[in-house]
Amino acid sequence: MEWTDDEVNQLMELLNKELALDIDYDIALNMVKWKKIKISTRSWQECKDKALLLINDARKKRFLSEIIVELNGSAHVGKINSRKPPSPAILYATANLESLMAI
Question: What is the rounded distance in angstroms from the CA atom of residue 12 to the CA atom of residue 37?
Fold first, then answer.
């Protein structure tokens, strides 16, 4: 039996109430008490299967611009200098530049 738009909306409302939004995606889904999420004629297992299908489908169908904005906001958080540190050979050459130039 196909899901109606009303059933999907109801499912998303119930899931929204149950989810902890400030937790990682995978952890949050594992914490959901699926047996509490039931819609009139649907079992909790049907609701879980449909919710996971919708969530996985939504995660795949994002625009590249949305992904870039998300990555731009979270990438390099806390990094002041993303450059690689100089190698020991470069440090040695810099410290002994005058003596190496004389050779």
Answer: 10
**pLDDT digits over 44-54, tens only?**
999 999 988 88
Residue 103 to residue 91: CA distance in whole angstroms = 18
Amino acid at 37: I
Residue 100, Cβ neighbours under 10 Å: how many?
11
3-state secondary structure 69-89: HHHHHHCCCCCCCCCCCCCHH
Q: Among candidates 24, 18, 22, 21, which has minimal Cα distance to 44?
A: 18
Write out residues in the chain with pLDDT < 70, as ranges: 20-23, 25, 59-83, 103
Q: What angle do CA 32, 33, 38 make, to 5 degrees?
A: 110
Q: Tokens standing for 44?
A: 């909790």
